[in-house]
Amino acid sequence: MCISDQPITEAYLAYQKELVDAGLLIPSGVKGVYGRSGLFEKVVDQFEAFATRMGADANAEVMRFPPIFGRHTYMQTDHVETMPDLMGSVNSFCGNEKEHRALIAKIEEKDENWCKDLTPTDVMLVPAACYPLYPTASGSVLPEGGRTVDLKTFVFRHEPSDDPARMQIFRQREYVRLGTPEQALQHRNHWLQTAEGMHKELGLEVEVVVANDPFFGRGGRVMKATQREQELKFEIVTPICSEEKPTAITSCNCHLDHFGHSFNIKTADGEPAHTSCIGFGLERIALALFKTHGLDPSRWPEKVRKTLQWT
């Protein structure tokens, strides 16, 4: 079932309206696509600064990527096989003047098939913040201690919804580890514990749960079961619009040697590298804070404001 087909209760719509009325989210006319106010962005910025402080000991390389990356890189992943319903392709017009006139005529005639005249470009929308990183390490041999990278980018997932926490375009802040199996697992476990403590320090009621990615189709059901059985993915969830279905605001994942094989990344001993990551959902964390403490951060509990260094 597409997320857009899932029932949205009055609680989701009520919180969406509350956020829009307060000017925190700016509707665009498309489900799950919003502008953000300066106050919303300040909450995101302060949380990011908190995450930076908590990750300072890792001495991570800092990389920031745009929300698009190469189509050839996308095809090196298995995303089109596992989550085709979430992908976003960037297409453009590449025809001549005659073909352009035909395109305009279709638009004037309100022919909704005019998009079929567009051609895929060399870029895709980023479906996960760590994806643009791996081609930068392609063919490399990692140092003995592996690598840790601090990432952030906008991520696109085609799942339109009236749930304000279910955005089509949103930001992920990640710490990614590339190294041996032991290094990758230690990184995942360390950050799972650290992130849980961070959210509790911010006054959020959170729970750590075993989770799975939204793999597609019959094969996807097997992959979901395997991912859960091996406990490769954990999510930190908190109630935003529903106590029964809390929202994932942070995830910690072990990818095993999947990307090591796909991008020919080796450890110092010549084995395919293992990778793991923590991903903070920045918009979701802000939404959870507003829901928990109110829409005016100046009135949030003193401990929360102190943690966020709110001024």
From TrEMBL:
<dbReference type="GO" id="GO:0004812">
    <property type="term" value="F:aminoacyl-tRNA ligase activity"/>
</dbReference>
<keyword id="KW-0030">Aminoacyl-tRNA synthetase</keyword>
<dbReference type="InterPro" id="IPR002314">
    <property type="entry name" value="aa-tRNA-synt_IIb"/>
</dbReference>
<feature type="domain" description="Aminoacyl-transfer RNA synthetases class-II family profile">
    <location>
        <begin position="155"/>
        <end position="297"/>
    </location>
</feature>
<dbReference type="InterPro" id="IPR045864">
    <property type="entry name" value="aa-tRNA-synth_II/BPL/LPL"/>
</dbReference>
<keyword id="KW-0547">Nucleotide-binding</keyword>
<keyword id="KW-0648">Protein biosynthesis</keyword>
<keyword id="KW-0963">Cytoplasm</keyword>
<protein>
    <recommendedName>
        <fullName>Aminoacyl-transfer RNA synthetases class-II family profile domain-containing protein</fullName>
    </recommendedName>
</protein>
<keyword id="KW-0436">Ligase</keyword>
<dbReference type="GO" id="GO:0005524">
    <property type="term" value="F:ATP binding"/>
</dbReference>
<dbReference type="GO" id="GO:0006418">
    <property type="term" value="P:tRNA aminoacylation for protein translation"/>
</dbReference>
<keyword id="KW-0067">ATP-binding</keyword>
<dbReference type="Pfam" id="PF00587">
    <property type="entry name" value="tRNA-synt_2b"/>
</dbReference>
<dbReference type="InterPro" id="IPR006195">
    <property type="entry name" value="aa-tRNA-synth_II"/>
</dbReference>
